[in-house]
């Protein structure tokens, strides 16, 4: 009898998730359904203001637009966050899998081609995607503008240099790094894609903390900010799509 009751409870919980109402889209977009089917697929989702997508209302420099995705307001553990700019020619921004000791928060800079909805979908342990949204205006051209880094004569000597710091704040560790890399997106004539595609965080004992996939929508010389509950040194390992490895230890 106990097994039957347990099975019925699990079935009821499963049906409740499947019947989840997503609610109204806060920034209606003709591309929402296309990207939902591509990345969220048929998994349950809801629009959720607790997932904050923070960007300026207008992109003064469309090549370097600050973006903060913060899902710390969700209950329980967030196991994955994806973010995209719906009207960019290359929409996907990142795919982030924070471990239990890392906050579901990421800050970086992106390219914007035109005014667009920005989305971030955070998946909790129950399998539900919580979608945060915002809208940004822009004069345009951030994705197709040539790289400033490539115009500097010594950029190849500085390729992969990492500047970083670790700061204690409210019992947490804020980790911030800047990596010298052109992050070419393949949209400039004669210049193929060349970008950092993988970043992995490890603690001082070499245990994995988080995994981050980056895409060509990220700005050149990317700035990345994480938040960790661990203490002691943190190691960041990066790799670009040409197989070049880079790393830094944040003391």
Structure notes:
The protein has 251 residues and is mainly beta. It has a single domain (23-250), classed as Immunoglobulin-like (Sandwich). 12% of the residues lie in helices and 41% in strands. Strands 1, 3, 5, 6, 8, 9, 12, 13, 15 and 16 form a 10-stranded mixed beta sheet that branches. It has a 3-stranded antiparallel beta sheet with strand order 2-4-7, with no helix packed on it. A 3-stranded antiparallel beta sheet has the order 10-11-14, with no helix packed on it. It is globular, with a radius of gyration of 19 Å. The termini are far apart.
In short:
This protein is mainly beta and 251 residues long. Helix content is 12%, strand content 41%.
Structural class computed from helices and strand pairing: mainly beta
What's the CATH architecture?
Sandwich
Radius of gyration: 19 Å
Secondary structure: number of strands: 16
The CATH fourth-level homologous superfamily: SoxY domain
The CATH topology label is Immunoglobulin-like
> What's the number of helices?
3
Mean pLDDT level: 90
Helix content: 10-25%
Strand content: 35-45%
Number of domains: 1
Task: Give the N-to-C terminal Cα separation.
Answer: 56 Å
Unreliable spans are 4-18
Name the helix and strand elements from N-terminus to C-terminus, one letter apiece.
HHEEEEEEEEEHEEEEEEE
- The CATH class label is Mainly Beta
Largest sheet: 10 strands, mixed
Approximate shape: globular
């Amino acid at each position: 009898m106990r097994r039957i009751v347990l099975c019925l409870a699990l079935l009821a919980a499963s049906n409740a998730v499947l019947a989840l109402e997503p609610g109204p889209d806060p920034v209606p977009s003709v591309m929402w359904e296309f990207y939902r089917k591509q990345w969220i697929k048929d998994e349950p989702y809801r629009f959720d203001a607790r997932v904050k997508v923070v960007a300026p209302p207008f992109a003064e420099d469309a090549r370097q637009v600050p973006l903060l995705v913060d899902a710390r307001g969700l209950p329980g553990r967030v196991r994955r966050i994806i973010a995209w700019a719906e009207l960019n020619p290359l929409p996907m921004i990142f795919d982030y899998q924070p471990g239990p000791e890392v906050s579901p928060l990421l800050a970086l800079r992106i390219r914007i081609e035109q005014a667009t909805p920005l989305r971030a979908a955070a998946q909790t342990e129950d399998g539900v995607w919580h979608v945060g949204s915002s809208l940004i205006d822009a004069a345009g051209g951030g994705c197709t503008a040539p790289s400033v880094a490539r115009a500097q004569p010594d950029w190849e000597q500085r390729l992969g240099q990492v500047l970083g710091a670790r700061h204690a704040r409210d019992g947490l560790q804020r980790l911030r790094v800047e990596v010298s890399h052109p992050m070419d997106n393949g949209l400039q004539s004669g210049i193929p894609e060349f970008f950092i595609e993988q970043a992995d965080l490890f603690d001082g004992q070499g245990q994995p903390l988080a995994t981050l996939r980056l895409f060509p929508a990220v700005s050149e010389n990317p700035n990345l900010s994480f938040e960790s509950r661990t203490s002691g040194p943190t190691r960041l390992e990066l790799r670009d799509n040409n197989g070049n490895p880079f790393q830094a230890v944040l003391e």
